[in-house]
Amino acid sequence: MEFRHPFITNPKLAIYYGLFWITAGAAYILLLTFGNGVDFVDALVEVISFLITFAIIGAAIWYVIKFSTLENNSFWRIILAHGIAATVIISIWMYLGVVLLKVLQPAPSHWLEERIVNRVFIGYILYVIYVIFFYAVNYYQGFKEKLRNEGKLKALVKEAELHALKSQINPHFLFNSLNSISSLTMTDPERAQEMVINLSQLMRYSLKHDQNEKVTFKQELENNQLYLKIEKVRFGSKLNPAFDIEKECLNAQIPNMILQPLYENAIKYGVYEATEPVDIITCARMSRDGLEIIIQNTYDPDVLSKRGEGIGLRNIRERLQIIFANPHLLRIEDNKKEFKVTLTIPQN
Amino acid sequence: MSEILRTIIVEDEELARNLLKSFLKDIDTIELIAECQNGFEGVKMINELKPDLVFLDIQMPKITGFEMLELLDHKPQIIFATAYDQYAIKAFEFNAADYLLKPYSRDRLLEAVEKVAERIQKEGVVSDISEKVSDYPRGEYLDRIVVKDRHKIHISPIDHVRYIESMDDYVMIYTKEGRFMKQKTMKFFENTLDPKNFIRIHRSYIVKVDEISEIQQYEKEAYIVILHDKTKLKVSKTGYKNLKDVLNF
Fold first, then answer.
1. How confident is the model at residue A75 (pLDDT cuts 50, 70, 90)?
2. B103 vs A179, A235, A272: nearest CB
3. What separation in angstroms does the CA of B198 have from each of B13, B190, B247?
4. Beta-strand pair B77-82/B53-56
5. Rounded to two decimals, what is the model's pTM?
6. How far is A179 from chain B (nearest CA, A)?
7. Residue of B nearest to A239 (CA)
8. Measured between CA atoms, how close is A145 to chain B, in angstroms?
9. Residues spanned by CATH 3.30.565.10 within chain A?
10. A29 Cβ contact partners less than 8 Å away, ≥ 6 residues apart
11. What's the pLDDT score for residue A103?
12. Between residues 177 and 236 of chain B, which touch chain A (CB distance below 8 Å)?
C-alpha cells in the first residue's frame, strides 16, 4: 500500500491543484466585488486568509481517507471518522484564518467579522468535496496498481513456464534421459517405452498451460511425479521419492508450475551431488491457512555449492506475493543436512 | 590386429554404464577391467590398475571428471562421455582422445576407440593429460580446489584458501585445514582465482585479501605483508602495485 501523498508521488497533480485554487480564488474575488458589492481589499483578505489556507490544510484530508478506506470499514465508522476529522480540520483552519486575518487587516471591517458562520458552513461543504475527490483519486490509483500487478503476474507465469521448459531441455536432464532410453532399448525395451511416454507427457504439460494461472494440486502433483519417475530411472536407488498426501488436498487450487522448481532443486542439490541415497519427501495437508505443502530432501553437507535463491525460488516467492499479498507463504529451512520448503496456498 | 586396451569406465549413472558396457563387449580390442561410480573411485582404481583407456563422465557427484584427472599419477588415454557440449574445448586441452556427446551411437564409439588405438601406436600408451593451454582464464573463477593428500582426496572451498606459494613445478596451497601440494603453475591460479579476492604480491605468492592484516615497509620501496596469523610474506614492486590497485590506498 502506498502511504505517500499523491501530491508528492505525482507533482503534476499538485500543480493542477494549485492552479485550480488560484482560479477559484480569483473568481471568488470577482464574484464578491462585482456581484455582492464587497470592498475589493476585504474580498482579497478573505480569499487569502481563508480560501488559500483551506487549500493548504485541505490537502491533509487525503490521510484521513487513507486510514478510513471504504473497503475495510463500516459505513457508520467512516461517517464518524470524517465527522471528527472535519471538525478538527475546520477548527484549525478557522484559527489559522483568523490569525492571518488579524495580521493582514489589524482592524477588520464589519463584513469580514460577520462571515464566521458562513465560513464554517463553506468549510464543511469543501470537506465533503475533498473527500469525494480523494476517494476518486485513490480508487483510480488502486485500479492502476491492480493493472500493473496483473501484468507483472502474467510476466512471472511466463517466466515460470520458460524456466520449466528450459530445465527440461537442459542437457543434463534431456540428453542424459535420452541416453538412459538408449540404454534401456537394449536391455529393457518396455521400460524404454515407458520412459519415452513419461518424457513426452512431462513436456506436453509445460507446453499446454500457457493461459491458466491456477490448476488443481492433483495436476501439479502428477506432473511432478512424472518428473521424479524419469529421474528415478536414471538414478535408481539414489533417488527415493515419498509422498504423504491427504485426500482433501487434491482438489485445492494452486498457481501452475509452482512446485516444479522445488523438485528440480532437490534433485540438483541433493541427488546429482550425492553418492548415498537421497530422500525427497512431499507432505500435503489442509490447514487453517489453506493448502500446506512441505517438500524436504536430504543432502550431503560436504558438497560445496553456491546455493543462492535461484530464479526458481524467487519466481515462486514473487508470484505468491502478488496473488496473495503475503510474504510468508514460502518458508525455507536448511539445517545443513536437510533442506525443507514449506508452501502455504490460501484457499477461499 | 592391434593391442588389447585395458579399460576403466568412470560414470555415475548405471544405465549409462550399462549402455557403454554393452557397446564395448563387442569390441575385441577392449578389455574392461573396472567400473567406477564417481571420481574418488576413479582416482583409486586408475592409479592402482594403470589402465590404457578411461571412459570419463564430467558431471559426477563430489568431484568432476576434470578434477579427477588432476589427481592422477598414471595418465591413461581419455575418452570423455557427457551430455554437455560446452566442455569440449576444455576436454581437448586435457589432451583427450575423443569427446562423445550423449546419447551416442555404437559407430561413434567405435570411431573413438579406433582413434585411441592409432594414438597409442604413434605415441605409446601413456598420454600427456596434464593441462597445456589452460593457463589462461575461462571467464569463470574457481570455486574449489581438489587436492590429494597422501591417500585422501581433499576438496577445499576457495573461501578456505589463505595463500599460495610457488615451489618449482608445484604450488603449496595453504588452507584453513592445512597445506597441500598441487602440480599447477602460479600463472594458472593468478588467472583462475577472483582478482578481487586474491592478489599476486610476489613471483612466489598469491594471497587472499581477507587474510592480510598489515602491509609494512621495512626498507625504502620494500614491503612485506603480515597475515592475521603473523605469517610474513615478501611483496615485490609489481606486487605492491597490485595491492594498491585492489585495496585502493
1. confident
2. A179
3. 37, 8, 11
4. parallel
5. 0.69
6. 4
7. B13
8. 41
9. 169-345
10. A40, A43, A44, A47
11. 85
12. none
Count how many Cα atoms sit within 13 Å of the Cα of residue A137 in the half-sphere of its side chain.
21
Are the Cβ atoms of A180 and B85 closer than 8 angstroms?
no
- Does domain B5-123 match CATH 3.40.50.2300? yes
HEC per residue, A100-139: HHHHHCCCCCHHHHHCHHHHHHHHHHHHHHHHHHHHHHHH
What's the gap between Cα B191 and its chain centre?
14
Average pLDDT, chain B: 88
Between CA B59 and CA A304 the distance in angstroms is 14
Are the beta carbons of A262 and A341 closer than 8 angstroms? yes
Mean of all residue pLDDT scores within chain A: 86
Question: By three-state DSSP, how is residue B8 classified?
Answer: strand
Distance CA A94, CA A190 (A): 90
Query: Which of A174, A175, A180 lies closest to B15 in CB terms?
Result: A180
ipTM entry: 0.73
CA distance B37 to B236: 46
> Beta strand pairing status for B205-208 and B198-202?
antiparallel
- CATH architecture observed for domain B144-247: Beta Barrel (2.40)
Helix (H) or strand (E) holding B118: helix B106-123
Q: Which three cell numbers stand for residue A187?
A: 536391455
CA atoms B62, B64, B69, B74: torsion sign: positive
CB A227 within 8 A of CB A263: yes
- CATH match for A169-345 among 3.30.565.10, 3.40.50.10960, 3.40.50.150, 3.30.40.10: 3.30.565.10
Q: Does B140 touch chain A (CB under 8 A)?
A: no
| Number of residues in chain A | 348
Q: Strands B5-10 and B30-36: what pairing?
A: parallel
Q: Is the pLDDT of residue B128 over 60?
A: no
| Cβ pairs bridging A and B (under 8 Å) | 67
Torsion sign over Cα B208, B213, B215, B217: negative
CA distance B201 to B241: 8
**Nearest chain B Cα distance for residue A196, angstroms:** 14
Domain boundaries, chain B: 5-123, 144-247
Q: pLDDT for A171-210, tens place per residue?
A: 788 999 999 999 999 999 999 999 999 999 998 887 776 5
Name every chain B residue with its beta carbon within 8 A of the beta carbon of A275: 37-38, 61-62
Per CB-CB distance under 8 Å, the chain B contacts of A172 are 59, 83-84
Residues 6 or more apart from A307 whose CB is under 8 A from it? Answer: A269
The tens digit of pLDDT for each residue in A226-245 reads 999 999 999 999 999 999 99
Instruction: Provide mean pLDDT across the span B7-24.
Output: 95
CB contact under 8 A, A175 and B143: no
State the CB neighbour count (10 A cutoff) for residue B196: 9
**pLDDT for residue A210:** 58
Strand B161-167 relative to strand B170-175, pairing: antiparallel
Query: CA of A276: which chain B residue's CA is closest?
Result: B61
